[in-house]
Amino acid sequence: MMSFAETSQYAGQLLLLLNLIWGFILYRDPNVDRDRAFIVLFLSVITFILYQFGLVIPLIRFLSNGKPI
């Protein structure tokens, strides 16, 4: 049985992956402004990369405190 931490990690990865897919769909849609869709897709990719390397929480702590961990 998976622990709560493992379940949360997999759920977070799934949500970020769905966000990437949704950003790509928006980018390909001709009725959506390309610039805004590109920003959404770019932020999704950056967030996904940060999450995969475990840098989201340290980045939030750094930005909130103004000093590294």
UniProtKB/TrEMBL annotation:
Keywords: Membrane, Transmembrane, Transmembrane helix
Transmembrane regions: 7-25, 37-60
Name the record gives this protein: Uncharacterized protein
